[in-house]
Design brief:
By secondary structure, this protein is of the alpha/beta class. The chain has one domain: NAD(P)-binding Rossmann-like Domain (Rossmann fold, 3-Layer(aba) Sandwich). The protein is 41% helix and 14% strand. It has a 4-stranded parallel sheet, with helices on both faces. A two-stranded parallel sheet has the order 1-2. Helix 3 links the parallel strand 3 and strand 4. Helix 3 runs parallel beside helix 4. The longest helix is centred in the middle third of the chain and has 29 residues. The protein is globular. The two termini are 31 Å apart.
């Protein structure tokens, strides 16, 4: 498994928790940079949000959000498909519950809807190649994404178990989507 993000130090810690370099490889990657994408293989998990309300954020921030959340995921597909096809591997994309239900005035929700569609488009495009495609759609998760850390949220281990579940299925089983929420999350 390859873990990719801009923060290599945090990724290396997670890789150790997952069993070290024999089970997880940490790779520094800015998903909006093609060269970084070419170094990274198999796991797309980048994204950031902003304030809700179409008049409450700047167009510049939207641009960066779309470049990271949508264009970055598309570059991940482009960079990984040749190796995934050769190895009959598994593409795992991270969207969000926000990619399944609209949040009022949320550009983040719009970008995650795009990633959800991208996952299905990739699954259809790769049909017959032996490549499996899974979309992970977590609900509220205790991450630095939030200014104030949420209580009763999913933990990073919850997401990791969902990824491992999808990845551990036999080659003839493709878990297309896993939408998971903390029990305390209503929507």
């Amino acid at each position: 498994m390859v873990l990719a993000a801009r923060s290599l130090e945090r990724l290396e810690g997670l890789a150790e928790e997952l069993g070290g370099s024999e089970h997880a490889l940490a790779v520094r990657c800015d998903v909006s940079e093609w060269e970084d994408q070419q170094r990274m293989v198999a796991f797309a998990n980048a994204g950031f949000g902003g304030p809700r309300g179409f008049l409450k954020d700047t167009p510049e921030h939207w641009r960066e959000m779309v470049l990271t959340n949508v264009y970055g995921a598309a570059l991940t597909l482009r960079a990984t498909i040749p190796a995934l096809t050769d190895s009959r591997g598994h593409l795992i994309l991270t969207s969000s519950v926000a990619g399944r239900r609209v949040l009022p005035g949320s550009m983040y929700s719009c970008t995650k809807h795009a990633v959800t569609a991208m996952g299905e488009a990739a699954r259809q495009d790769l049909h017959g190649t032996g490549v499996r495609v899974t979309l992970i759609e977590p609900g509220m998760t205790d991450t630095p994404f939030f200014d104030e850390r949420p209580t009763d949220a999913l933990e990073d281990d919850d997401i990791a178990r969902a990824v491992l579940y999808a990845a551990s299925q036999p080659a003839h089983v493709n878990v297309n989507e896993i939408l998971l929420r903390p029990t305390a999350q209503a929507g």
